[in-house]
């Protein structure tokens, strides 16, 4: 497996993202820009300019609109094809996270807890056809009283999950607009929440070196992955029982302790057994984002050092473990290639 | 006290403002306390003719504790003979206490053992309740055998256990490396407040608590004993696990009632003796060192010599050598080796002496000029002792390669032959091969450029086997079975070198970044390197390697503290008997291999079943979720979501294909 290295950004990568088809790869960086690449060969298509550090991005399911949350306290929307900024919405403080709701009719934006402003999740209505004003504030959710590192829509937009700095996952009801559940399973900040395909389960990644897999309906813990190293991000394969973790000692503590490049290894775990099955060395700084393409044949990683790697799996990978069977057949042994794509 | 009363008295009459005499001058006080006196019982009874002589002898003996008041020794008479009691008055209270501690149980002659008490304690003993109180007899409970764990099926097959501590967890695991990973036997939280410690034979696991320590063991990790010692921090076991010494720092200790260091009998759980803690600058652990077979324990009394206590009777045998700096016990014989450093005129001296309850007999001595300090290294069978000598830096010749000299005594050969050899450069580490004749030295001037030398004790002479040069190593870890050795660069970049001293070749070199410790499995088949959170905070965890440097298991844990293999009791077989087994190895091999294979196959099957069950469970959740997802298709459509394969994605591609169906050649008729 030979990775394609995308070297453009000279500051840390905050997020890598594939569109729904997986043919386009968006890379958000702290160097105030988002770049767009072809997944297949790593050719660059263009760059979207923001005025501040880009913390999070999301792309609509038809790949027409790109939203960014940035350090200059703005939510921006770009036309993907033309690279043109369509609109920007100002916030009081830094925007940390952004995500389209399923169906692209709403957008959630998280602002940081600084300068006397409480961390909060804002929900905005999104009307792409409206030329004058695409975004309208709909409502905001009650503050948890601590920094929210990421917020994400639950299945059918019924809930919003917030990864909080105090180690809790807070679950909000979008109808009642209240906090309905708090899952405290981590001792250190929850860095990211990642969904499996179809949002059947989700995994929480924490600085305490532990990731947990939950059932998204009952919030029951299904699996615990203890990696021993701070985890920043996870990617879950849609076709194989594999989960991918990226992380490593954060940049500020690296300077005070001795680490080698194996610290920043991207590590594969078996999602059902909970055992480590492999790893990939390549980054020389903490990995901030890993993600699979929706077809599960490619994954991309982005790190502190500004490097993005796109890995297309070799054929041998696809013979390595049995595929996941989504269709509820009861015949486990006969499970080759009958999942739906 | 009187002063205080005065003050209160005055304050009552404050209004008078008439200064009384007491205000200007403290009233003359008679020292009525008896805290400078000791009473000695069991003094020989003599007539008046020998009275003065006895007084002088006692005076001379006791005066090591401190200055005695002139004529301070009083021997009351009982008729014509002395009463068998002596009173001694010291100039300082401290000396009296010291005298009690040092001479209580002192053997004056073959019939008289001194019993020393402070006179202050008289009152205490006077009020002693003399009426006999019926003791309540507790029903007999059978003690758990400490060796039960050795009868475990896995233990008999020579799988070893280890304890690993991380976060709040303490895990006791079996090392089943043929299955790829250790099997957790017991995992508990909050088992100990600080750390855990194995006893020397592996019978007991010590856990530390606020009020004392607890021992666990047996076949099912039952509590084997609770030892109350408030604030306990350190523990040390005697070589055969019969006794135990604990330490708890105790500020402002009363020397009459020491509470810091406590000697215990493990099996009875009885507190045998308490000792005060030495001052901080002299403190080192273990505070006492044990002789072979748990016979004696001893410590240095600065300025006096070595106090040797017999463990079974607690009788004190002082070894008088005021300048003694270092001593050690032979691991096999009741030999003590001690060192007196050189002075201006006299050379330093290493003495080997035999200790018995009857007394101390010097066996051999060796003078070493300019020796100011030594380190003693016993080979663990007690065959050899190697003494590293530090010489006075000032007296060293300049412009000569610095070297360190060693003295090697062969303690199991007649007359204790001694030889001297020198090694270049300062010594970084020294270690004997367990039960062997080889030893290894790391020496060099810069930590990136060290030499590792292997020596062997030959028939007549120590010979150099090999030397590894330009290594970045600082610690030596011999396999408990000898032959193999791991050299490590601890608390630094963590280079590891696995070396075979039989063929004198390096098996492999590895690294375990910022490795803080190495621990060999008692079987000598595996070795663990670990990074402890106590020293390093990133990437804490442990690696298990085979003896030749192949990694078999690795674990990273946040807040990983401690890894420790469970030791095994000493070998019951002699080296000779073991060699016989080794030479007949083929005979046993087939049998063992067959058993192993059967069990491994079973275990592997079990493991496969377990994994399959996990996978089925996971797929169950996944498929249930997927079923629900499919049932929500209508809702999603309403929300405007795209499906995995969406109708918006479908498009009709129209491609014009030209195909040549046939080529016909028609020859047109020519016009004529």
TrEMBL record, chain A:
GO terms for biological process: formation of cytoplasmic translation initiation complex. InterPro entries: eIF3i, WD40/YVTN_repeat-like_dom_sf, WD40_repeat_dom_sf, WD40_rpt. This is Eukaryotic translation initiation factor 3 subunit I. Signal peptide: none annotated. Belongs to the eIF-3 subunit I family. Component of the eukaryotic translation initiation factor 3 (eIF-3) complex, which is involved in protein synthesis of a specialized repertoire of mRNAs and, together with other initiation factors, stimulates binding of mRNA and methionyl-tRNAi to the 40S ribosome. The eIF-3 complex specifically targets and initiates translation of a subset of mRNAs involved in cell proliferation. It is found in: Cytoplasm. SUPFAM superfamilies: WD40 repeat-like. Component of the eukaryotic translation initiation factor 3 (eIF-3) complex. Keywords: Cytoplasm, Initiation factor, Protein biosynthesis, Repeat, WD repeat. The keyword Aminoacyl-tRNA synthetase does not apply. Pfam families: EIF3I. Transmembrane segments: none annotated. GO terms for molecular function: RNA binding; translation initiation factor activity. WD repeats lie at residues 6-47, 54-88, 183-224, 280-310. SMART domains: WD40. One of its GO terms (cellular component) is eukaryotic 48S preinitiation complex.
From TrEMBL, chain B:
GO terms for molecular function: RNA binding; translation initiation factor activity; translation initiation factor binding. The keyword Nucleotide-binding does not apply. HAMAP family: eIF3b. Pfam families: eIF2A (PF08662), RRM_1 (PF00076). It comes from the Eukaryota. Transmembrane segments: none annotated. This is Eukaryotic translation initiation factor 3 subunit B. It is found in: Cytoplasm. Residues 36-121 form the RRM domain. Its main location: cytoplasm. Belongs to the eIF-3 subunit B family. One of its GO terms (cellular component) is eukaryotic 43S preinitiation complex. Component of the eukaryotic translation initiation factor 3 (eIF-3) complex, which is involved in protein synthesis and, together with other initiation factors, stimulates binding of mRNA and methionyl-tRNAi to the 40S ribosome. RNA-binding component of the eukaryotic translation initiation factor 3 (eIF-3) complex, which is involved in protein synthesis of a specialized repertoire of mRNAs and, together with other initiation factors, stimulates binding of mRNA and methionyl-tRNAi to the 40S ribosome. The eIF-3 complex specifically targets and initiates translation of a subset of mRNAs involved in cell proliferation. One of its GO terms (biological process) is formation of cytoplasmic translation initiation complex. Component of the eukaryotic translation initiation factor 3 (eIF-3) complex. Residues 594-624 form a coiled coil. Keywords: Coiled coil, Cytoplasm, Initiation factor, Protein biosynthesis, RNA-binding. InterPro entries: EIF3B (IPR011400), Nucleotide-bd_a/b_plait_sf (IPR012677), RBD_domain_sf (IPR035979), RRM_dom (IPR000504), TIF_beta_prop-like (IPR013979), WD40/YVTN_repeat-like_dom_sf (IPR015943). PROSITE patterns: RRM.
